[in-house]
Protein: Penicillin-binding protein 1A
Amino acid sequence: MGRPSLARRVARWAALAVIALALMGAGVVAFAAVTPLPKPEVPQATLIYDVDGRVVASLYRQNRQLARPDEIPASLRQAVVAAEDARFYRHHGFDLVAIGRAALRNLQAGRIVEGGSSITQQLARTLYDLSLERTFDRKFREALLTVKLEMRYSKDEILTMYLNQVYFGRGAYGAKVAAQEYFGKPLPRLTLAESATLAAFIRGPELYWRQPDRAKARRDWVLSRMAELGMISPAEARRAQAEPLVLRPPDEGEVRAPYFVDYVRDRLAATAPEVAARLYTGGFRIYTTLDLDMQTAAEAAVARLDQVVAPLGEHQGVPQPQVALVALDPASGGIRAMVGGRDFATTPLNRAVHARRQPGSAFKPFLYTAVLASGEPITTPVACRVRQYPGGAGGEPYTPRDYGDPGYHDAFLDIRRAVAVSDNVVAVEWMDRVKPRRVAALARRMGITSPLTTQHLTLALGESAVTPLELARAYATLANLGLRVEPFAILRIEDRDGHVLFRREPRAERVIAPEVAWLVTDVLKSVFDPAYDGTARALGIGRPAAGKTGTTDASRDVWFVGYTPDLVAAVWIGSDDFAQRVLLPGGAGATGSSTAGRIWQAFMRAALDGLPARDWPRPEGVVRASACTLTGSLDAPRFQWREEWFLAGHVPAPNCLALLQDPHVREDLAAAGQAPRGLVPLPLPSLPDGPGLLPEGNLPRGGPAQGGGATGGDRAGGAVPPEERPGPEPGRDDRGTGGEEGGPRATEAEPDPTPGQPPAAGHGARRPPDSGVPPEGGDPTGAHPDPGGQDGAGPGSDRGAEAPADGGRPGEPPVPDRGGHVP
Ligand SMILES: [Zn+2]
Structure:
């Protein structure tokens, strides 16, 4: 029972305070009553500039057009009263019940969350341009002016003044302008539904008109409220609620990047309300991060949408599928280009910012950042085969599959290849090893702000929905070699006299180690590499680039997110109704690479045209070394000896048998029937123990019949299944590069920093032996790439000297470090 009594007490205090204020201010009220209304300033257009000082938009609206009282339809008066101040005709300027309720809510929240302002109070604020700042002083003056208005004018006069003053969004001050702006008709001809729509917009003037679903929900709420208050009958409310909400497209005039300008307006409303309130008349100069050349490139690339996808009809009058593109400067987070849909005039919803959609495989880079940050080598093989995990739908085991048929590679894939071909099964297995909780935490640190599941392995496949902007931001952390930035649009605001009202300070925070970000980027380069069957092998842009495709269930969302050191861009295509599949023009299901990827490619080529190609500088803590991995089909797995990049201190043991000690690898081999569970395959005869002596060899099956490792690797010998493309050969430049078109390759021609040094031999030196997962509480960011710490010097550490050839001598099979790990 504490709440009502508290509410009553608060209401009484508020009432007493108001009366006191009114008495104290009686003289001021008398003075104010004889002074004229303040003269409005001469309206002046606000100019928005791009990063090179070119004008992006000139924002200007005609002066208010005042409506005569008889022009205002009763439905609009009633709707506004219902929406903003239901007891307007009964109170004397202050709705004490509303004030008490607001005070109670604010007390409970510990801050101002609700205003409780009556229509008269709101009018006082707008008439006299009182800032929305909620200080006592402002409140005091507002209260005086409210009393004055109530003394001098009738309720109908106050409401008329209010409707002539209030802001409805899109530059429309006053109901007469708003009726033209939104419905293209004179005020007296507004229907009930249209009146309710305008009333709905007052609470969020720059919010609702862009988001048709939310706008309709609020309009329908206003109509219900009107029925509750007896202004209209329930049947009238229902009829009006059944009407579609159709707004006239905004006439943006001289706006060259409408979605971006809209984003700027949106940001201003949140961060500089005093500028937003006078945006169309205040003559501000707003300097932004946009690059008009890149914006032009973005609009041209998005205009190719109908060449890459089939039309899907309309959803609420808007053609589908829709599209979004957002590009950031990774170094600062400045937004360089932004397209939020096919056409701002017909669909102002900015999907780059507001469309929260499943990213599919475009989420995988966060998973693999966690994997590589744990010290796991890129060469660790995982079999793509039928795998089951607890927690599937309906109590069934969860059984991940690859995109398309047959659903499994039935082959060993190391991390580089698993990322390049976007393997789902391998990704889920890695997620099971590093755990969703840790990956979600890392993704958040990298810049994802939407809620992420911490429970389900499907996080690996992009189950948790995100927006294009936050995805671009989180990829920028990789492009930036580990520094997270915040996307932003406004660099500086000046008033009409050139005084700086706002200036943005650069900020960036290190969230992952540069070595880890570099490795992930290097792996993501292979997505463009035909040698790795990369899903984006046709999407090169002629310079070093990294990226990832995304395609969700049944192609409902298709993505491409990719970056160079200078630019990161995310492209999304999907249907606003979440239901329809994105199709290729021929009718087949679309993939990220065949659709969003082509728009990304067209954009990046044009946006970066003329800029020098750059590659990422390799951090010192990354070393090149030879390592053994498993490749080939499950029927005939092969050792492969190749060069790869590693975190210093995490170079794997220089022999292939060490690989067979990994319990996960043993499990995979056992599942493939290559060796009985719990036993190790026979060691290769005369197994050499150093790099270069063991090129490739078939894993022995049931004895030495398959031949020795040194000779069995001859690929021409027919041991390789035809569908299995051989991986790069040792020593070859097998790093992914910027593309298939002879663009500049990475500078690995320089000598490897570790030639001749004996690589660390201890298997255990590279990671915790059982799973590759760092110990609980370990730093998932890899900020300390060597959990051991003391011997981070890498190759030649004395641990390696203590544990030579942990693969054991021939004839002495190594024993797994941990038995029974795999369920
Ligand atoms: Zn697979």
Q: What stands out?
A: The pocket of zinc ion is lined by residues 384, 402, 408-409, 423, 425 (CB under 6 Å).
